[in-house]
Amino acid sequence: MRCGNNPPSKLRAGCGVVLAIVIGILVVAYRKDEQRNKELAATADPARIAYLILDYVDEGTKSSATKIGDHVTVEFRIDPWSLTGSTARSHFLSSAKQLFRDYFSRLPEVNRVTIVGTGPFKDIKGNESRGRALEIEMTRQAASDVQWDNISTNNLPRIATDFWQHPSFE
Hints:
The protein is α+β, with helices and mostly antiparallel strands. 44% of the residues lie in helices and 23% in strands. The protein has a 5-stranded mixed beta sheet with strand order 1-2-3-4-5. Helix 1 (9-42) packs antiparallel against helix 2. 24% of the residues are buried. Mean pLDDT is 81; it is low at 24-30.
């Protein structure tokens, strides 16, 4: 389909329909994002924060979060983003950046956040299992001088309190 100068009327109508669909999708996505941001601003529940950041768009991540004392641990599946090790790692770090920023800004009693990404593995005999693929931890002290809007996710492992990745990601 060509939408250039003076297209025939059927093509012009087709372009109009495609444009209307794209605009509709963008409006729905914007409203959903706006609703998520309102819910995120109103909650102090660690599990709800994890859900709104990780699962709201993609239920496949199946996140969970627990808070014991001043420590929050978040675990989620990286499978939906595991096309390659690089995409899984990139998505994990991007999610970790959002989670660290939100937990430390919304929950003043939290002093340490650990984020664990789990994934599918297959051993040399073909046996499948699920296990820890990536893990990152940050303390409030380490996060205190991070400019979250300006930091590259690639630098997150270097400034984190602790970082571990499965050897298959190296």
